[in-house]
Amino acid sequence: MNNTMVESLPANLVPDDASPYWMNKGDNAWQLTAATLVGIQSMPGLVILYGSIVKKKWAVNSAFMALYAFAAVLPCWVGWGYRLSFGEVFVPFLGMPNISVDGKYLLQQAFNGVKFPNATMIYFQFVFAAITLVLVAGALLGRMNFYAWMLFVPLWLTFSYTFVCYSIWSPDGWLSKMGIIDFAGGFVIHLASGVAGFTAAFWVGPRAANDRERFPPNNILLMLAGAGLLWMGWSGFNGGAPYVASTDASLAILNTHVCTATSLLIWLLLDIIFFGKPSVIGATQGMITGLVCITPAAGVVQGWAAIIMGIISGSIPWYTMMVLHRKIWLLKRVDDTMAGFHTHAVAGSLGGILAGFFADPKLSRFFYQVPEWEHYVGLAYAIHMGKYRAGMKQIGVQLLGIGFVILVNITMTSLICLLVRLVIPLRLTEAELQTGDDAIHGEEAYALWGDGERFETSKYTSIHRVDDFLSMVPKVGGELEMA
């Protein structure tokens, strides 16, 4: 609808400026809700998960790495990152750099004719960029210099994430034009973060020997709380990918939970068969691999395919983590704290390949809005319909995407680590590695439980010990006066 048509409408039908004719309020509301659910996955979801799944002495540092990454991405994203990822063509794998804080631009309709403004799209894409950096942090817990991490985050967002995001998700990206299937980030987020985290872990080096040998969670119940926020938040992660409150969004959400539950149960069953005990940490890993595997395919596959993907995501990453990891030299050498290589790189690659196999061309048409057999045809359907060449082409594009993401992230992550290392050490000192949070931040997660006397060690308060605290409480008749 053009401006002339709007001006010709009766006065009672002309929309207010705050609610333009092209905006669908339901879609806009869902997109903002989905974005917030994804944000909750990082903060507090992964903040809690990281802070509780590590040793007590690393709880503050691990949670803080996630919190910092989430905060640091946003000014970079609105400053230049969003337009590099989704802006006008600069080169085939990168958009034209520009800011995204101009009020006029923020209120304009977002790309591809979606029915909400740029402000909503920028927010939605921000939480995806942020969680990618938070996932990279998972590979580096327990030894990376926090100041080096502060430099790493904006550099990696600028020179790695934007390249992959534009290539795959921007309508003008070269892989997007080839018809790659990445419904909600199996390549852009999970494969990228798994490879980047593993590469950065190589350059930073392993944890202290005693930490690597034994690294028990300090609070498994809190770990489960963080994992629960991650799982439930995935409704926004995959449900927001269609950019519309549609039947495809509903299918994507249901497929997400079906695949995840199946993957968790398969991983749990394998733990029981081979180790004799049901492991809650193992079940959490199975949950994550299921979530990651279904992500590139969530809205373009049928429910039965989601179950098969759950079986595969609960078994193959289990095998790579529990068996191959102990046999392959490189996997043993690199200390990937949260096993992101297995849970994100392996599971994300599996999801990308399986999307190319199980994608239903009718569902692909709903999501991509293209003729049924032009692109996005799963090999299984192509064989059934006698169009096997279309299916083989789709598998080829998926494999090309995997190769591109791996190449970009190994190269750019290595260059960034080497650059940061020229300015500041990537790794903490040996003394800091032995002490942990207190040496790095002057704070401890469980101070009262830690020594029975210390109340608070932060430099932001003058109260350091219980005795100091009690001396400040007024007394009446020898008894404490309670407010």
Structure description:
By secondary structure, the chain is mostly helical. It has 2 domains: 415 residues, Ammonium transporter fold (Orthogonal Bundle), CATH 1.10.3430; 35 residues, no CATH class. It is 66% helix and 2% strand. It has 22 helices and 4 strands. The strands form 2 sheets. Strands 1-2 form a two-stranded antiparallel ribbon. The chain has a two-stranded antiparallel sheet with strand order 3-4. Helix 2 packs parallel to helix 5, helix 3 crosses helix 5 and helix 10 runs antiparallel to helix 11. The longest helix is centred in the last third of the chain and has 36 residues. It starts with a helix and ends with a strand. The N terminus and C terminus are likely disordered.
In short:
With 483 residues, this protein is an all-alpha fold.
Number of domains: 2
Identify the quaternary structure here: single chain
**Overall 3D shape:** globular
CATH homology-level superfamily of the largest domain: Ammonium transporter AmtB like domains
Q: Measured on Cα atoms, how large is the radius of gyration?
A: 24 Å
CATH architectural group of the largest domain: Orthogonal Bundle
Report the helical percentage: 55-70%
Q: What structural class do the secondary elements suggest?
A: mainly alpha
Please, what is the average pLDDT? 89
**Secondary structure tally: strands:** 4
